[in-house]
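Mods, move this if it's the wrong board.
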Amino acid sequence: MDQLLAIRAFARVVEAGNFTKAADSLQLPKATVSKLVQTLETHLGVQLLQRTTRRVAVTPDGATYYEKSARVIKELEDIDGSFSVAQSRPRGHLRVDLGSSVADRLLIPALPEFLARYPDIRIDLGVSDRHVDLIGDNIDCVIRGGPLTDPGLIARTIAHARWITCASPQYIDRYGVPKRPEDLDTPAHRVVNYLSARTGRILPMRFEKSGRRLEIAARHVVGINESNTHFAAGLAGLGVIQTFAFVARDAVARGELHEVLSTWRPKPYPLHLVYPPNRHVSNRLRVFIDWVAERFESQLSG
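Not the wrong board. Structure tokens:
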């Protein structure tokens, strides 16, 4: 029995919550992962996992074994990492998840620079506005914005994105310019709401001026749960949108959008790079984190 591989397989099943995801992340057949765990259980003489047709549950013995074996796996990764840092360039595979507008406007344009600097790193990008399960989906890190709601994750704030509320010239010709945020919640105006990709609920527009804060969740004709399409709806004149300044700045410069309610800008939105606490921070992940922080801060400053 390859005990180390069996321990890794068991740990991934625990972290992923099922054999299918664990097998995908290890790039092994599901039957192989199942066999490895069974062999480990036979070797130890205890049942580590309780299997049903619908789910996999960790037994008390399995929880204890996972806690202890996870520390061993991390120590081995630290040993391997110390040699790779000292003897070679960062290399290997990174899985990164991020929102579509951040990917298109910030990361992708700068990524050739990163890959030229670190040619031995391969990156898989998951791009959507839906939040993922870092551990279950075996993601190395995610770039997300807003308040941090999971204290079990490690986060580094990498930049702050300014907001802008804007509308197309066609919209303004038809409906005029809103004078106050409250005007958006009247029949005289139209908004394109951004909807949570997870819940489908409206994420209200936020406004702040002289210490006064407002949230507007106006009734909409069109609501969209993906940031690039939400921006495209504003360009098409479907309504007033609130989006990140880095998304709209080129369109504003070309006159395709005009800022409205400019004296009611909310506080900048924090962007974080987040990774699981039990994930070894490899050299390749460390240089990616540092590079993203440097690039995003320079792109969003000013």
